[in-house]
Write a structure and sequence with these properties.
heterotrimer, A alpha+beta (about 375), B alpha+beta (about 160), C mainly alpha (about 350), B: about 160 residues, alpha+beta, three-stranded antiparallel sheet, two-stranded antiparallel ribbon, about 25% helix, about 20% strand, C: about 350 residues, mainly alpha, about 65% helix, globular, disordered N terminus, NADH_UbQ_OxRdtase_su1_CS (chain C), oxidoreductase activity (chain C), ubiquinone (chain C)
């Protein structure tokens, strides 16, 4: 037998591997059914539901104040922004005008949340591509933000600081000072992120041209947040559907047109700079006033349908409430950014290597409880 | 020649990366961000607003401020609070009054949302900054907040 | 075969007095093997501790500091734990190969150690094809990894093993060729002679430009040979979980783990011997005390090991195709050019000698 016959007679087949639900790269209990041919990905099928807690159903039995704290547990890395989304929906439905002080404080904390989420993402991103040290540098900076949250809100992660109508209590007297300290600290550390990882030749080779998502596909799949903006799709809710105090600040919507993992990476790094500039514009100008508008003890929304969207660290979070005029929502639906962003994974990961899949998934920045709810 | 300039830039980028970690290595002594937790118990103080667990403060006469209005029980999203109450004759005024028998708090079910404390009209319950809540049996997590034999502060109306 | 045991001459004579010659030499070899085994088990454990400490210092942490003074006993405690753990086997594993694989890895790692001249006197096995033998031995280890991945009947382990095969076969070339470049200057493969040549300046100084290029290529390829980051595709934890040793537990896992660190020591020790003058002190400052050679040898080796750890805790991992591109498109052509350059330099007597 000559070589060609041997090769032709070789039996080779695709094989399936289960990535997850317990796998270091899936960041939680996401299960991916991979069909691979050697190293090359042929198909990615996400299998969801391992951390489904029926938050939407539980909400139907809860009062509007109680719903807020459940949203902490969805996208736990942007807990404050999730809370804000529900509060804004309820406030819009009640046509309640919240004090300016509340708006500004909400915006500052939301941007701090975004930085915290992105620093964690940066650390984990590095770890996913094999640079383990980034994890600790990312966490070092995130800890400082968490301390600020803990001092003002009482908890580090699931803060539940918002209530419909305002805030649960006023900011801590140290808040402004600590935020300024953090900004000064982080301005020296963020360039370090670039020197350590962004400029690294191995990292660039791993990231550039991988997992390319075109603008049309981004819109078709409903991508939002840094994933959409990395593909040139201008989808920043803070710009297009202004809420809270975003009308008081000037900031750029970071857009990249390449659509690959490196573009998404750069969008997030740039967003941290933008967030810092937003905080800097607001931190000295927190208006005096009440930290809460007066609401009834039992909030009843007028019958109707209400929708409000906000920009979390991962993208567009929509809250849709159908009310029948009682103290509970008749139906509550969250449009979570992670779910839509995960849906395009199969589209962009096929044809790449296993290593590419991990890098692509890292830049989608998935938080599994946000997907499953 | 771009082949060689590629190699040159690649090595340059690797060395810049190494300079960052190298800098931290040299400052490892004072730069460490680790907290040696069980050792630093004495100095470890949580922030005032930290939500550790719900407690009911009692004054020196073993009196609390809970009138048994059950607003906290209603506000709680998870049913972590149960109040067992009874209408008893107040020894001071001689009138029938709603008095609590037990204010039961299930720490295991609590999500530390703080709604009960916001809801309390008499500030009877508040946050404690204790964070070492692990126990060997989860029945220990069910606590009766009012001390045995305690009474409500007189003159407190809901 | 010539076995240099100057340091054990007294034991040798004493044994000859009480035993026939064959028995005496067998006893001697066993004794030496036991000493080496004991020493390198401890050295491996020490390297694991060093790795953890160095990693901690890079990452703003404290590292192990609970067991013993500043955590010095940490890895001993870990080893004791691993010894006492159950050895699990998957049902569909190929039992014979599954059990054999760890020994391939650890035995080859220990075999290579016998060659190094720790000082002028202290060398167990001074063979005249030293470098050739080292390269040959170090590539047997990959068989163990391949067997481990294949026999444990785990898909992730299988991918890891295949990657390991591809990687080691490719990078073997660069390790060999970069050492070959240096052999051009020494004219001998015997490790003791290579060190002797360096009395007139370390080879990295003697060979200047091509030697430095050869050293850089050797360090890159050597890191890849030991399957360490940034070339740790074999056990890429974010991709494959644990790679080829996913199904191993207890002491069998510890063999793989220990072998990785001993391999790291071997790669650094070869670099020390070939590029940095082995046991020779810088500028001959302690030439009068031959036993200090051990200190210099270990010090140089540790510096190179630190360099490898620095790589590991800084760089992201390469992808499998980039790994091969790096080898076949960059390292190999450069290496061949370098070999020619070195040959020219040796021919034209442009080497720097003191």
């Amino acid at each position: 037998m000559d070589a060609t016959t041997i090769i032709n007679n070789l039996k080779s087949e695709e094989y399936f591997i289960n990535m997850g639900p317990q796998h270091p790269a899936t960041h939680g209990v996401l299960r991916l059914l991979l069909t691979i041919d050697g190293e090359i990905i042929k198909k990615v099928e996400p299998d969801l539901g391992y951390i489904h807690r029926s938050i939407e159903k539980i909400c139907e039995h809860d009062s509007y104040q109680q719903i807020v704290h459940l949203t902490d547990r969805m996208d736990y890395l942007s807990a404050h922004i999730n809370n804000e989304a529900v509060c804004l929906t309820v406030e819009n439905a009640l046509q309640l005008e919240v004090p300016d002080r509340v708006k500004v404080i909400r915006t500052i904390i939301a941007e701090l949340t975004r930085i915290a989420s992105h620093t964690l993402w940066w650390g984990v991103m590095g770890m996913d591509v094999g640079a383990l040290t980034t994890y600790f540098y990312g966490f070092r900076d995130r800890e400082l933000i968490n301390d600020i949250f803990e001092e003002t809100c009482g908890a580090r992660l699931t803060m539940n600081y918002n209530v419909p109508g305002g805030l649960m209590f006023d900011i801590h007297p140290n808040f402004v000072k600590r935020v300024k300290e953090f900004i000064a600290h982080f301005k020296t550390k963020l360039p370090e992120y670039d020197t350590l990882l962004t400029g690294n030749i191995i990292f660039q080779k791993r990231m550039k041209g991988i997992g390319v998502l075109t603008k049309e596909d981004a819109i078709a799949f409903g991508a939002s947040g840094p994933v959409g903006r990395g593909s040139g799709y201008s989808c920043d809710v803070r710009k297009h559907h202004i809420y809270s105090a975003y009308d008081k600040v000037t900031f750029n919507e970071v857009l990249k047109t390449e659509g690959d993992t490196f573009a998404r990476y750069q969008v997030r790094i740039q967003e941290m700079w933008e967030s810092m500039s937003i905080i800097e514009q607001l931190i000295d100008n927190i208006p005096e006033g009440s930290y809460k508008a007066t609401t009834d003890a039992v909030i009843k929304l007028p019958a109707g349908e209400y929708y409000q969207k906000v920009e979390t660290a991962r993208g567009e979070l929509g809250v849709f409430i159908i009310s029948t005029g009682t103290k509970n929502p008749y139906r509550l639906k969250f449009r979570s950014p992670g779910f839509s962003n995960l849906s395009l994974l199969n589209h962009i990961a096929v044809g790449g290597k296993i290593g590419d899949l991990v890098a692509t998934m890292a830049t989608l920045d998935l938080v599994i409880p946000d997907i499953d709810r | 020649m771009s082949y060689f300039s590629d190699i040159y830039h690649a090595i340059g980028s690797l060395l810049t990366g190494m300079s960052v970690t190298g800098k931290y290595f040299l400052h490892a002594r004072k730069g460490a961000i680790t907290q040696e937790y069980p050792d630093n118990r004495a100095t470890l103080k949580m922030f005032d607003r930290f939500r550790g667990e719900v407690v009911m403060p009692h004054d020196e006469n073993n009196q609390h401020r809970c009138t048994g209005c059950q607003k906290c029980e209603l506000a709680c999203p998870n049913g972590s609070i149960e109040i067992i109450w009874d209408r008893q004759i107040d020894p001071e005024t001689g009138k029938k009054k709603k008095l609590i028998d037990q204010h039961i708090y299930h720490l295991g079910m609590c999500t530390m949302c703080g709604l009960c404390i916001e809801a309390c009209p008499t500030d009877a319950i508040k946050w404690a900054q204790n964070f070492e809540n692990s126990v060997y049996d989860r029945t220990y997590l069910t606590r009766v907040l009012n001390k045995p034999g305690s009474r409500v502060v007189s003159g407190l109306e809901d | 075969m010539y076995i240099a045991m100057n340091i054990t001459k007294n034991i040798h004579e004493w044994l000859l007095a009480i035993l026939p010659e064959t028995a005496a030499s067998i006893v001697e070899m066993t004794l030496i093997a036991l000493v080496y085994l004991a020493f390198f088990a401890i050295a491996g454990l020490f390297l694991v501790l060093l790795e953890r400490k160095v990693a901690a210092w890079f990452q703003l942490r404290l590292g192990p500091n609970r067991v013993g003074f500043h955590g010095l006993m940490q890895t001993i405690a870990d080893a004791l734990k691993l010894v006492s753990k159950e050895l699990t086997v998957t049902i569909k594993a190929d039992k014979f190969l599954y059990n054999l694989a760890p020994y391939f890895v650890i035995v080859t790692a220990l075999m290579a150690l016998s060659l190094f001249p720790f000082s002028k006197e202290l060398q167990a096995f001074d063979i005249n094809i030293g470098i050739f033998f080292l390269i040959a031995i170090s590539s047997i280890g990959v068989i163990g990894i391949l067997l481990a991945g294949w026999s444990s009947n785990n898909k992730f382990a299988m991918i890891g093993a295949m990657r390991s095969g591809v990687q080691t076969i490719s990078y073997e070339l660069s390790v060999g060729l970069s050492l070959m470049t240096m052999v051009l200057m020494t004219g001998s493969l015997q490790l003791s002679e290579i060190v002797e040549v360096q009395k007139h300046g370390w080879l990295i100084v003697q060979g200047h430009i091509p030697a430095i290029i050869a050293f850089m290529i050797y360090m890159i390829a050597g890191t890849a040979e030991t399957n360490r980051a940034p070339f740790d595709l074999v056990e890429a934890e974010s991709e494959l979980g644990a790679g080829f040793h996913t199904e191993y537990s207890g002491m069998k896992f510890a063999y793989f783990f220990l072998a990785e660190f001993i391999n790291m020591f071997i790669i650094s020790a070869i670099a020390t011997t070939v590029f940095f003058g082995g046991y020779l002190s810088p500028f001959g400052i302690t030439e009068s005390i031959p036993l200090l050679g051990v200190f210099w040898f270990l010090a140089k080796t540790l510096v190179l090991i630190f360099l490898m750890m620095w790589f590991r805790w800084t760089f992201p991992r390469l992808r499998i195709d980039q790994l091969l591109v790096l080898e076949w498109k960059y390292l190999l052509p450069l290496n061949l050019m370098n070999l020619v350059l070195m040959a020219l330099i040796v021919l034209l007597k442009l080497t720097i000698k003191f």
